[in-house]
């Protein structure tokens, strides 16, 4: 009985131990579940906190990006406003410069117009003065020729009157004396022969004088007198003309071309003063550009006589052209100042 009781007590103790172990296991299992749930909750809370932090970080980044974008837009707008302001200022500056340039251009145009009018008036005045001077010279030469012709006329009239008086006396004598009549007829015959001989001799002499002193037919214009009068000496060129004084004021040229022409005029004057051989010059350009006027003014500035001919007059002469040109050069050598020969339209016969 005692052993059964001990066995039963042992079984009850074992059952109690099993029961305690069961509840311990249950308690441990519950604690484990609670720990797992706690860990799961912590994990979820951590995830939620991480998501919240990420969301807040994304919001902060987005806010900063929006702030930077807004600042960039403000900067871009500020730059655009500055560019617009600079463009307006540049446009205003250009408009002001354009206005100033137009005013300066208008001033230059008015000044050029005034200069042209002044040069035109000066040219007209100089032309009138030169024409008046030429007219006075021509009148003086005409008076000298008239006086010379009147003197010659009086001499011839006196000679004719004397001749007729002698003829009248001779006729009276001849009519009264037959031998003298025969001699008179012979004298009249000799006189007729003498008159014929004198006329032919005068014609030949006049042709020679005209060839030596007269102006050749090819010369259209010249500053040298056609028939120089005795006692009238050529005027010596003034020092002002040789040293570069007035002479090209009536000619409107480009400054560089004008300096070149003045240099050629001074060189020509120095060539004449040193008796050196002259150089040839070729002027080319469209009609009406002032080539003839420049040649005339260059001759005057150099203190030389000038003569002008046209190449179109030489071409039709054919074989006589050489003789006519030799006559021109022979005539030019008679100038006491020296001659500047200007051949206009020279290509009319030089190009063939």
Walk me through the structure:
By secondary structure, the chain is mostly helical. It is 76% helix and 5% strand. Among the domains are: 1-106; 220-352, Rossmann fold (3-Layer(aba) Sandwich). It contains 8 helices and 3 strands. Helix 1 runs antiparallel to helix 2 (178-213) and helix 4 (255-273) crosses helix 5. The chain is rod-shaped, with a radius of gyration of 64 Å. It starts with a helix and ends with a helix. This is ATPase family AAA domain-containing protein. Residues 25-122 form a coiled coil. Keywords: ATP-binding, Coiled coil, Nucleotide-binding.
Key features of this structure:
single chain; 352 residues; mainly alpha; Rossmann fold; three-stranded mixed β-sheet; 5% strand; rod-shaped
Short description:
By secondary structure, this protein is mainly alpha-helical.
Write the layout of secondary structure elements.
Blueprint: H1 2-176, H2 178-213, E1 219-222, H3 239-242, H4 255-273, H5 291-302, E2 305-310, H6 311-314, H7 321-332, E3 339-344, H8 347-350
Parallel strand pairs: 2-3
Antiparallel strand pairs: 1-2
Helix pairs in contact: 1-2, 4-5
How would a crystallographer describe the biggest sheet?
3 strands, mixed
Cα radius of gyration in angstroms: 64 Å
How many beta-strand elements?
3
Terminal Cα span = 176 Å
Q: How many DSSP H or I helices?
A: 8
Class by helix and strand content?
Answer: mainly alpha
At the fold tier of CATH, the topology name of one domain is Rossmann fold
Please give the CATH class of one domain: Alpha Beta
Q: Looking at the structure, what is the overall shape?
A: rod-shaped
CATH architecture heading of one domain = 3-Layer(aba) Sandwich
Strand content: under 5%
Biggest sheet: strand arrangement: 1-2-3
What are the segments in which pLDDT stays under 50 over at least 5 consecutive residues?
228-246
Residue-averaged pLDDT, rounded?
79
Share of residues in helices: over 70%
Which sequence of SSEs, written as H and E, runs from N to C? HHEHHHEHHEH
């Amino acid at each position: 009985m005692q052993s059964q009781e001990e066995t039963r007590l042992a079984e009850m103790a074992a059952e109690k131990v099993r029961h305690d172990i069961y509840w311990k296991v249950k308690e441990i299992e519950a604690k484990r579940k609670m720990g797992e749930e706690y860990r799961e909750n912590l994990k979820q809370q951590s995830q939620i906190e991480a998501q919240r932090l990420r969301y807040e970080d994304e919001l902060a980044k987005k806010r900063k990006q929006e702030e930077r974008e807004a600042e960039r837009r403000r900067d871009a707008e500020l730059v655009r406003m500055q560019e617009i302001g600079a463009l307006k200022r540049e446009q205003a500056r250009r408009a002001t410069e354009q206005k100033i340039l137009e005013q300066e251009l208008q001033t230059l145009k008015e000044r050029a117009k005034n200069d042209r009018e002044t040069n035109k008036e000066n040219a007209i005045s100089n032309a009138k003065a030169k024409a008046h001077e030429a007219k006075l010279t021509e009148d003086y030469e005409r008076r000298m020729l008239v006086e010379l012709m009147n003197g010659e006329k009086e001499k011839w009239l006196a000679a004719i009157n004397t001749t007729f008086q002698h003829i009248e006396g001779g006729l009276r004598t001849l009519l009264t004396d037959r031998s003298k009549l025969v001699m008179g007829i012979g004298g009249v015959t000799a006189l007729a022969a003498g008159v014929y001989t004198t006329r032919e001799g005068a014609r030949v002499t006049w042709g020679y004088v005209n060839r030596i002193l007269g102006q050749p037919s090819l010369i259209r214009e010249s500053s040298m007198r056609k028939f120089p009068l005795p006692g009238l000496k050529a005027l010596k060129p003034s020092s002002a003309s040789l040293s570069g004084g007035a002479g090209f004021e009536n000619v409107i040229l480009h400054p560089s071309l004008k300096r070149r022409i003045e240099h050629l005029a001074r060189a020509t004057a120095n060539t004449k003063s040193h008796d050196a051989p002259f150089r040839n010059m070729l002027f080319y350009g469209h009609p009406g550009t002032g080539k003839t006027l420049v040649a005339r003014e260059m001759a005057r500035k150099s203190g030389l006589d000038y003569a002008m001919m046209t190449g179109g007059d030489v071409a039709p002469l054919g074989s006589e052209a050489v003789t006519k040109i030799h006559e021109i050069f022979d005539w030019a050598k008679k100038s006491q100042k020296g001659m500047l020969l200007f051949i206009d339209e020279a290509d009319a016969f030089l190009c063939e």
